[in-house]
């Protein structure tokens, strides 16, 4: 702070006529900077912003994984639907065809079946069971607790026959086991929802 006459007092002349200006005691110098309260408030605001960003990143990761699992389930459901359309007779055979209605979750893997080849051709029933066995292996390998539910229904004229296809999985990033969630009654089989209320599903209906 510059020295001014208001903050100085004159002292007696020294030899040679020079005067010495000396700061008076008790003169207040204005303080500058931030108080402790202001610093604490700023730190609190910054901490809240960091926590909000961390929560946003966690939510983005969770929904990205949910979308990945649902996309995989949709591809698998379309895969078995195409197989059923290619073998409509097998789709109408029920338990000896494509039907897979195990109420346990995750569903048990069906027994392995020999592949159908030109040297060893299959009829509609054998082709259906081979398709289900191959599809179920992929289902269990690509989805957590991956399960399939396939059920034939005879249509009432003039409606065609159709097959219900569900692909189910457990989503570890969204729900803990035993916690139910709201969803339409057709999205998951009732048998699965009784065993595992948190199961997530993709549903397709295949007309024959």
Task: For this entry, give a set of tags.
208 residues; alpha+beta; 3-stranded antiparallel β-sheet; two-stranded antiparallel sheet; 5 strands; 38% helix; 14% strand; elongated
Explain this structure to me?
This protein is an alpha+beta fold. The protein has a domain of 135 residues. The chain contains 4 helices and 5 strands, in the order ββαααββαβ. The strands form 2 sheets. A 3-stranded antiparallel β-sheet has the order 3-4-5, covered by helices on one side. The radius of gyration is 38 Å and the shape is elongated. The termini are far apart. About 5% of the residues have low confidence.
Average residue pLDDT: 79
* Spatial shape: elongated
Unreliable stretches (pLDDT < 50, length at least 5) are 177-186
- The percent of residues in helical segments reads 25-40%
Number of helices: 4
Radius of gyration computed on alpha carbons: 38 Å
> What order do the helices and strands follow?
EEHHHEEHE
Beta-strand fraction estimate: 5-15%
Largest sheet: 3 strands, antiparallel
């Amino acid at each position: 702070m510059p020295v001014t006459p208001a903050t100085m007092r004159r002292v007696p002349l020294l030899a040679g006529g020079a005067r010495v200006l000396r700061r008076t005691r008790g003169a207040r110098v204005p303080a500058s900077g931030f108080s402790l309260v202001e610093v604490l408030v700023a730190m609190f605001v910054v901490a809240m912003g960091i926590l909000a960003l961390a929560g946003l990143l966690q939510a983005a990761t969770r929904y990205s994984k949910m979308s990945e699992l649902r996309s995989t389930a949709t591809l698998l459901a379309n895969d078995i639907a195409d197989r059923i359309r290619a073998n409509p007779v097998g789709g109408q055979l029920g338990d000896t065809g494509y039907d897979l209605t195990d109420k346990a979750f995750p569903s048990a893997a069906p027994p392995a079946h020999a592949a159908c080849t030109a040297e060893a051709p299959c009829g509609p029933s054998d082709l259906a069971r081979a398709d289900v066995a191959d599809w179920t292996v992929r289902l269990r390998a690509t989805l957590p607790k991956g399960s399939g539910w396939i059920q034939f229904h005879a249509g009432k004229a003039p409606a065609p026959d159709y097959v219900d296809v569900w692909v189910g999985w457990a989503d570890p990033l969204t729900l803990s086991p035993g916690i139910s969630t709201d969803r339409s009654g057709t999205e998951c089989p009732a048998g699965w929802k009784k065993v595992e209320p948190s199961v997530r599903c993709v549903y397709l209906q295949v007309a024959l």
